Here is the input.
Amino acid sequence: MRNIDNLTIHRFRGIRDLTLEELGQINLLVGVNNSGKTSVLEAISTYCNPLDPLEWINTAWRREIKFSRKSKLESLKWLFPQNNENNPDDFYQGETFVSGSGNFNLVESKATYEEFEEIWDTTENNNEEYDQKNLIDEIDIDNDEIRYGAYLKLTFTPPEPTFQRIEDENKERSISKKFKIWENKPLTTLKKYRDNSLSVDTVTPFSHRIEQLQIKLLTGATFQGFKKEVVELISMIDSEIIDLEILDPTGKNSRLYVIHKTLGITPISSFGDGVRRLLFIALTIAKLKGGILLIDELETAIHTEALVPSFSWLVKWCRKMNVQLFATTHSLETVDAMLAASESTNDLVLYRLYQKDMQTKAVRIDQAKLGRVRENLGLEVRW
Here is the structure.
């Protein structure tokens, strides 16, 4: 059984009633533009952290880096379904709903978003109880003024116990937390809401360019004894790469360096996106043992000739670390390379997403069928 065996995204961004059945260890999402591929990754990310408001904020912001940086609440709002009936002069209200099954101890994840304005009262209790069931945790405070904010209510429903006492049958199983979030104020880390979560991380088409994040990840991978495997992967792009080191030549700022046969000790920033992209993927796997890895645009920055060896490494370590992978791609070469990298096991599944009758549908193609239609028939599988 996988962490997630089956997933239904009932409402999330533009997705309606999308069901992904019999998920594999490696899951490829293909489809035309705007078919919902990236939205599936975002829905999984929030599903794995159902009570963590920071995960919702970070998920909303990842997409905005691609385009224009919206405000925190404006970005968050667009995770929720939109329609033409929404009056821009009214305060927006929306709800997301995702359900699933598997090893992860979660059946349903729901979230509601409700905008508001109010005059901030400095005498207000920071942990004000609005009703008997849901505690409003005050995040971000400011001086007296009219302020724009939103309530974010997150609900987690665990599986029903196999053996349940009769007197507990009507007991509410869901856990709900309601947060008051203010615009233009940073959120603090809320570790107490991460108990009911599954380890998950997202690799975007740009995350590999954040060097300080790579330094943090390399430190963790080194402590885990995973550094050798990381170097093994990036040497597939440049065979003269020997090692990685974190150095601070000025005494003011640590930098990430590559030990190279020809170039010597060279900053990672001097290398192309391919090396940095694979480095970031490897470092992310190192911290996700038993969790979920999400990669948007899997083939980004990786040369065609390096696809098969790189994906072979990726499949091997996802299997060894028990990491379930979900990745989007537009490339038929990427599909073929992943198929070649996974040929020894039956753990690859491809889902072709498409829109029909205001709903998102998926065609599931398992590894055996994918091999037949691609290798024997050469058929198109992306759309």
Notes: DSSP finds nine helices and 16 strands in the chain. Residues 95 and 135 are 19 Å apart (CA to CA).
